[in-house]
Design goal:
The complex is a heterodimer of chains A (372) and B (355).
Chain A (H helix, E strand, L loop, with lengths): L8 H9 L7 H8 L8 H10 L14 H20 L7 H26 L7 H13 L1 H4 L3 H24 L5 H20 L4 E2 L5 H8 L1 E2 L2 E2 H19 L1 H11 L1 H6 L4 H27 L1 E2 L7 H11 L11 H20 L4 H24 L3
Antiparallel strand pairs in A: 1-4, 2-3
Chain B lengths: L3 H17 L14 H5 L19 E6 L6 H15 L4 E5 L6 H13 L4 E4 L4 H13 L4 E4 L11 E4 L2 H19 L6 E5 L5 H15 L7 E4 L4 H14 L5 E4 L2 H14 L5 E6 L2 H9 L4 E6 L4 H13 L15 E3 L4 E2 L4 H4 L7
Parallel strand pairs in B: 1-2, 1-3, 3-4, 4-5, 5-11, 6-7, 6-8, 8-9, 9-10
Antiparallel strand pairs in B: 10-12
Helix pairs in contact in B: 3-11, 4-5, 6-7, 8-9
The chains are: A mainly alpha (372), B alpha/beta (355).
Chain lengths: 372, 355
């Protein structure tokens, strides 16, 4: 089948790879080897970067195999929930509850997925969210009304993300270090601004709280914001040049540079995007808790990274999906929910989460080895 | 003294502490000096303590506490500083607050090296800071141990702190009595703890369970949060799903309680009543409004920092507490946990800390 398309193989490779028997990965590799380099390097690199996203398994028609694993895990958890707590787990209100809980960190996870696919890491997300929530709830900001508060949160998040990006792309700092510095500094700044107090949303700005109390078709508004962010993130990652370049930059930055992609500018934008997501998450956490506080988002960076990794994104970059990350996150949220519904200890919950991360990464490695 | 209000505050505060450590959780913050608030304190003759307020021997006071990532600890530092400033004879030397045990040890060591007259320490962890407090004591510097206790009595001169067990008892009695009066049998009682690994959390839960037991009740579900708004919100919203009908809820901490209340409002639940803990101004305002599920809160007041500074000063100057017969300050003082309800909230509101 693949040979029949010979002349156009380099263009069609993602689609052409689909029917290839996964048991013969070597054939796939050798089939690609003789491809003459196309005239347009740029196109080739982008096409290549797209390739890993295309699943080589026959299961592809139902979604990627690793997603199937995640869905199975979720189904398993749901079955556990149905057996242990039949009357409270499968209720609409509990499902809505799980979605609302996942919203805040879900938005952050979307930004994190971009950064990690782009070959970086962002440790500052939790702290940025805290900073944005504090900045947006200072009395000075609150006096301008809810819209300015939202704008403020988003701008603070994006601005801090830009600083991360500048340090990493133009300052040539290692992402781990640059964002670690931002984590510490942003938390400190948030504490300083709030004087380490919890800042309540004042009367007159209830519009923000209404994001979580108002329900449209049974779902709080903030869940729609979450879904919207995921949808936009998916489109950007899968259907735009920006998304393809993200894969290219993460997969092989040098090749991407040679192909004419401005790697530094792209990296800068990735971190700004992650910051933007933190800003949006700050609005959601303000809505949920009615406060801005420097304690918000503690260890969110680890939860977000774990969700992204479980979702099948390579920590080294170049491969990953948003849907996988969100499924990974939902697994975590459902576990928390199940443990509390059953009145179990938080310590056991942490152990369970740790095990899931290990299993997920082991599976990921196996599927990676079978492919190369 | 240039500030008569502050002086009156001291008199009332000092007298109440002396009166017997049972009703002292609400002493001595600035607003307590207002006649309206002070008038509701148990009447004690201030005369006995009067000359304690006069400037005495000049002393330096070292102060070390954890970094405030929480409203309660922030209030501790602020209260200590404000109280120290009321005295012209106290030179207050706070060290950089930190949550790092190592950093706190070296901070205290620097205070010892500076030969301060008295040390007020709220340790991050009593066990781990014990050694350095012992060093201070051996160097002849009296240590006032605030709240988290050093395990070794040789390490401190006086301990003053709250009663975590008593806090649980107070909450248990409020909930138990109310449910008993209502005639509820087999009530669903939910408890939201702070950080579960801390001994103080375990003490609170034990007190709560013991008090409920006297009414024949027990805790239906218990879950821990992290003393933060966000975790309180997460745990509460899950707990509300787990229990479709709740009779009463005790939340250990008013700061995380903001998140708990947000979750309750979000779920649109109001079939139960809730008791808070610590006594933040915000929780008190909620109680005062009368239309919240939050009906009461049991105190664990950061005003203890003000009292500790005053005790430290008295110790350094060799004075006793005026209402006691003894010439010296007692070895340990446990503050009582009080229950704030709509009826007495106006009296406590000035003492509430902004979380």
């Amino acid at each position: 089948m693949t040979e029949a398309r010979g002349p156009k193989a380099h263009e069609r490779s993602p689609a052409g790879a689909e029917p290839v028997d996964p048991a013969r990965p070597a054939d796939q590799a050798s089939a690609e080897a003789p491809d003459a380099p196309p005239a347009d390097e740029h196109l080739r690199v982008e096409a290549q970067s797209r390739k890993p996203a295309a699943p080589p398994s026959p299961l592809a028609r139902f979604g990627q195999a690793r997603h199937l694993g995640l869905v199975l895990a979720l189904v398993l958890l749901a079955i556990v929930g149905l057996i242990t707590q039949p009357e409270s787990f499968a209720t609409t209100s509990n499902l809505v509850n799980i979605l609302s809980l996942a919203s805040t960190i879900g938005v952050i996870t979307v930004g994190m997925t971009f950064v990690i696919i782009g070959g970086g890491i962002d440790l500052s997300v939790g702290a940025l969210m805290a900073l944005a929530s504090v900045w947006a709830t200072t009395l000075a900001t609150q006096s301008y009304g809810p819209f300015v508060m939202i704008l403020c949160a988003v701008l603070v998040g994006t601005g801090a993300g830009l600083v991360n990006g500048l340090l990493i792309s133009y300052g040539r700092m290692v992402p781990f270090i640059a964002t670690l510095a931002m984590l510490v500094a942003a938390r400190g700044l948030a504490q300083r601004m709030s004087d380490r107090k919890t800042q309540l949303i004042q009367q007159g700005n209830e519009l923000i709280v209404e994001l979580s109390t108002t329900r449209v078709l049974g779902l709080p508004v903030l869940v729609y914001i979450f879904i919207l962010v995921v949808a936009v993130g998916w489109v950007v990652l899968n259907r735009t040049t920006f998304g393809r370049r993200t894969y290219a930059v993460g997969g092989n930055p040098e090749a991407a540079r040679l192909a004419g992609i401005d790697v530094r500018r792209h990296t800068l934008m990735l971190y700004a995007l992650s910051g933007l997501c933190c800003g949006i998450a700050a609005v959601l956490i303000m809505a949920r808790t009615t406060t801005g506080s420097s304690t918000h988002g503690d260890l969110y960076e680890l939860d977000a990274i774990a969700a992204v990794i479980i979702g099948g994104t390579l920590l080294t970059g170049g491969r990953g999906t948003i849907i996988g990350s969100i499924l990974g996150l939902l697994i975590f949220t459902v576990i928390t929910n199940l443990f509390i519904l059953n009145g179990l200890n938080t310590s056991d919950q942490l152990i369970a989460k740790g095990l899931i991360i290990v299993v997920a990464v082991l599976l990921q490695r196996r599927s990676l080895e079978s492919r190369t | 003294m240039s500030n008569p209000l502050a002086r009156r505050g001291f008199l009332v505060g000092g007298a109440v502490i002396g009166a017997g450590a049972l009703v002292t959780a609400c002493t001595s913050n600035e607003p307590a000096a207002q006649p309206t608030a002070a008038g509701t304190q148990p009447a004690s003759p201030p005369a006995a303590g009067s000359d304690n307020d006069q400037p005495g021997k000049q002393i330096t006071m070292g102060f070390s506490a954890p970094a405030a990532d929480h409203g309660w600890i922030a209030a501790i530092a602020k209260n200590a500083e404000a109280t120290a400033k009321q005295y012209s004879d106290v030179e207050f030397k706070p060290v950089e607050p930190t949550n790092d045990i190592n950093a706190q040890i070296s901070a205290v060591e620097s205070l010892i090296a500076a030969k301060v007259g008295v040390l007020v320490i709220l340790p991050n962890d009593g066990q781990q800071l014990n050694q350095v407090a012992r060093q201070a004591t051996e160097a002849g510097i009296p240590v006032v141990n605030l709240d988290r206790i050093f395990p070794d009595k040789l390490s401190y001169r006086t301990w003053i702190g709250g009663d975590n067990y008593g806090m649980g008892v107070a909450a248990g009695h409020y909930i138990g009595k109310k449910l008993k009066d209502k005639g509820v049998s087999n009530p669903v009682i939910v408890e939201i703890q702070g950080i579960a690994t801390l001994p103080l959390t375990q003490d609170r839960s034990k007190g709560f369970a013991d008090a409920l037991k006297t009414y024949g009740f027990s805790v239906t579900a218990q879950q821990d949060a992290q003393f933060t708004v966000e975790t309180g919100n997460e745990v509460a919203s899950n707990l509300l799903q787990a229990h479709k009908k709740i009779d009463a809820m005790w939340n250990h901490d008013d700061d995380q309680g903001v998140g708990v209340l947000a979750a309750i409002k979000e779920a649109g639940r109001n079939e139960f009543f809730m008791v808070g803990g610590a006594g933040s101004a915000n929780a008190m305002r909620e109680i005062q409004s009368g239309n919240s599920v939050l009906e009461a809160t049991v105190t664990y007041s950061p005003t203890m920092a003000s009292s500790a500074v005053r005790l430290g000063r008295l110790i350094a100057q060799g004075k006793g507490m005026s209402d006691l017969v003894e010439n010296q300050v007692p070895q340990s003082i446990t503050l009582a946990s009080e229950t704030i309800t709509k009826d007495n909230v106006a009296q406590y509101l000035p003492l509430g800390f902004e979380s």
